[in-house]
Specification:
Blueprint lengths: L2 E6 L5 H14 L4 E6 L3 H7 L5 H10 L1 E4 L13 H9 L3 E7 L13 E7 L8 E5 L6 E4 L4 H18 L3 E6 L7 H13 L6 E6 H10 L6 E4 L1 H14 L7 E5 L4 E5 L16 H13 L3 H17 L13 H10 L2
Parallel strand pairs: 1-2, 1-3, 3-12, 5-10, 8-9, 8-10
Antiparallel strand pairs: 4-5, 4-11, 6-7, 11-12
């Protein structure tokens, strides 16, 4: 069966890491077809808008997108493209694995293998109700949590634990202080956890979670939390395993899913052929899992690990002298 996916090559190093990723996927002969679409600054230059309707139509039709980093211009009037995509397609679950890899700059080379699942569509991060007083002295923003939003992302976390054989879900909150918003999230999470007696559930306040992650990350399996907390925790976890160059991300909804490298577009090294493609390759692995190809996803991940272990054409950030494409070709040879 052929799956058509929307491919967004993105800005900066985006086209380079996408070319490398598609080269590896093509080597695997998975029956994937690609429909190109633009977003970010390249879309602004070509179409006069950051997120063209044609791109939205392509994602809606194909229901799967693989996306390189995008650049959102800094300044008033520009909304985050990623936030816009999450809102448009109701991509409520942001799934961020963090796993130790060989020959990477990790403080815990053997001890990290966890997933952060972040509610993606509500909470303080969305920036609802932002106002600044006329004198510029007072700024206000509204946090909004719903039972529906909390219920579906927590359920997703427990279902993922069951599906992947993980044993524990940690519910991260600040209900001791944010009694209404975080309190509702925690109350709803407890209701859902009770329906999964086969999965251990524990609760942890967000500040303690951050401390525990940098002291004993091996105690975590799956973390589920609200939008802003998840944004912070998921990057912290990437730091535990060597940085964002090894951090994939999935944005999952009922009708669409977007898989991405979560690092930036790195314009300072764009065009030099030295960008590490691992984050987008690992995101492609998440995409294959979503497409019910777990064996192929695991084959891809094993080829990445084997290439890292062999130090074969690693990019400079990983201590090698390879290029983006030579690294990808080394992975492809193992496939």
């Amino acid at each position: 069966m052929t799956h058509t996916i929307t491919v967004i090559r993105g800005d900066g190093i985006g086209p380079e890491i996408m070319a490398a990723t598609l080269h590896v996927l093509d080597t695997m002969n998975l029956g994937l077809a690609y429909e190109e679409a633009d977003a970010g600054m390249v879309a602004q230059e070509k179409h006069g808008e950051l997120l063209p309707q044609a791109t939205l139509d392509s994602i809606a039709k194909n229901r799967i997108a693989l996306k390189s980093p995008l650049t959102t211009p800094v300044g008033e009037g520009f909304t985050s493209i990623n936030v816009s995509l999450r809102k448009k397609f109701d991509l409520y679950a942001n799934v961020r694995p963090a796993k130790s890899f060989p020959n990477t700059k990790s403080r815990f080379p053997d001890g990290v293998d966890l997933i952060t699942i972040r509610e993606n569509t509500e909470g303080l991060y969305i920036g609802d109700g932002q106002t600044v007083s006329e004198d510029g002295e007072i700024a206000t923003s509204t946090s909004r949590i719903t039972h529906k939003g909390a219920e579906r992302v927590v359920r997703y976390a427990f279902e993922l634990a069951r599906k992947t054989g993980r044993k524990k879900v940690t519910i991260v909150h600040k209900a001791n202080i944010l009694k209404s918003t975080s309190g509702l999230f925690l109350k709803t999470a407890r209701e859902i956890a009770a329906k999964y007696p086969d999965i251990e559930a524990n609760e942890m306040i967000v500040d303690n979670t951050c401390m525990q992650l940098v002291m004993r990350p091996e105690q975590f399996d799956i973390i589920v939390t609200t939008n802003l907390f998840g944004d912070i925790i998921s990057d912290l976890c990437a730091g535990l395993v060597g940085g964002l160059g090894l951090a994939p991300g999935a944005n999952i909804g009922d009708d669409a899913a977007i898989f991405e490298a979560v690092h930036g577009s790195a314009p300072d090294i764009a065009g030099k052929g030295v960008a590490n493609p691992c984050a987008l390759l690992l995101a492609a692995g998440q995409m294959l899992d979503h497409l019910a190809m777990p064996a192929e996803a695991n084959r891809l991940r094993k080829a990445i690990v084997d290439t890292l272990e062999a130090k074969d054409n690693l990019t400079p950030d990983l201590g090698g002298s390879g290029t983006t494409m030579s690294f990808a070709e080394a992975i492809a040879r193992r496939l």
